Amino acid sequence: MRKNKLTAILLCLSLAGIANAQEKSPQVIKSEPQLEDIYNVLEAMDTHIFRFDLKEFLNKTYSVNVYVDEYEKGKSPKQAHSIRLGNNIQSLNVVPEEHRQAFREIKHIPEGKNEWEEIKELAVYLRKSNDSTSVCTINVPGAMRGGVPLKLRPVEKYHSYVYYPRPFKFQTIKEGEEEHFKIPLILYGSAWLDEKYNIIRFCGEKEIDPEMKAEILKDIPHYYIIGIEFKSDKKE
């Protein structure tokens, strides 16, 4: 009887040890996708997202435009698109009187005030719509959204259209230029053929300087610069 009990105890301890060993063995644990994963998927689908905070320019009223300039080797730069966003600070005085109360409620304008901040942020989305065209979408949260086409160029000797974005470095507005100035935001450029190794490249600086002295610009055959323009409202 005692022998049977001892055997049973040893068997239980053995099974417990096996179970404990199984519990400690490594295993894959499912986790939720992270924001980085979403960005990686979007970029794999040729979709790029940029967002800019413009609150520091609410110190005065500016007329705001988004410009898209096109650069191509052997040709003079040209403006491809200009998108008028309106004033960054809006006034109820320009709204017909019968609609002012509705605007006050929609824009959450307190009684006793006639102005509201219209352009506080700007988002830019770049997306391939087909092989030879991308779409640049401009989104001002709570105000407007619009898109313009960007015609692409194929890589030399290939029929593929390969484009990548590069953000610009930002610098303070120079003294005396506060009334009218432009700020480049994003470069969207074509990859190029490395003839020595017969491969397609897009390598160089991760950010572009506003003076356009980046070495990568010597290699990119075709690109767009998307920027924002501020012009002081003369009515102030």
Automatic annotation (TrEMBL):
Pfam families: DUF5041
Keywords: Signal
InterPro entries hit by this protein: DUF5041
Signal peptide start and end residues: 1-21
Origin: domain of life: Bacteria
Name of protein: DUF5041 domain-containing protein
